[in-house]
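Regression report. Comparing outputs from two consecutive submissions.

Submission 1:
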Amino acid sequence: MAGHTIKNLKELDDAAVGFGLSPDVEARFAREALECEQSGLSYQRLAPDVRQSFGHRHARQEEMYVVVEGGGRVKLDDEIVELRRWDAVRVGPATMRQFEAGPDGLVYLAFGAPNTGPGDGEVIQGWWSE
């Protein structure tokens, strides 16, 4: 394997389509495409005023999120935090999290490490229901 990999995130498959979440949600996962050995990366977009339909947490993977467009809120366990462009959020593995876009939508990059592969995450549909 080469010492580097380059991929355009917007050219990766949109996983949200397969889950019936498109066009309100866009989710492009780059871990495999980039041949990540120790980490993972994804591009996430929520249309204006859309909340993700599920919360999730991990057994081992820590994640960092960077807002690159728009803003909104994130629920971290029992705390709701406002987000704006260029905010960076670190979330420990056991912390439940779910995102909601504001009126301008929300686009963020998610970075995770270590690379745990499938099965490390727990998803709870409708977790943030207020």
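Submission 2:
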Amino acid sequence: MAPREPKPGNISDFRRLQPATFAGTEKPLDAEQWLVDMTNLLTAARVPKDEQVEVVKVQLTDVARTWWLAEEERLEPPIAWEQFMDSFYERFFPKTTRTEMEQQFINLQQGSRSIDEYAAEFLRLSRLAPYIVAEEEDQAN
């Protein structure tokens, strides 16, 4: 079964939000942020769930585009947004990297950094271990 073509209005609404492209050579946190941004833009543009993958895949270039072409062959259509996200994370932000960065967060110390630099790193890494900092008191600790 061929994928359904997205409605032109959904694509133009999405494009008007100026979504970034993703080449597949970005750092893991950049890949994760790209996917979060795409999810937010799809919601803002009110792209229906069954059209989200078709709308976003045009934002993939270079390595990411080659990866996705292979994934489309491997996955059974229709491909849901959740399937796309799972495959994307597996390829560009794998569990081993998330675990390693979670450990960096657990071991994070201010050291010679300014408070602002430390706070920025804390926020950047805390996204990977939300269960550790769920409460304000946990964040302070």
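Expected: both submissions complete independently.
Actual: both completed, but the second showed a warning that disappeared on reload.
Relevant detail on submission 2: Residues 137-141 have pLDDT under 50 and may be disordered.
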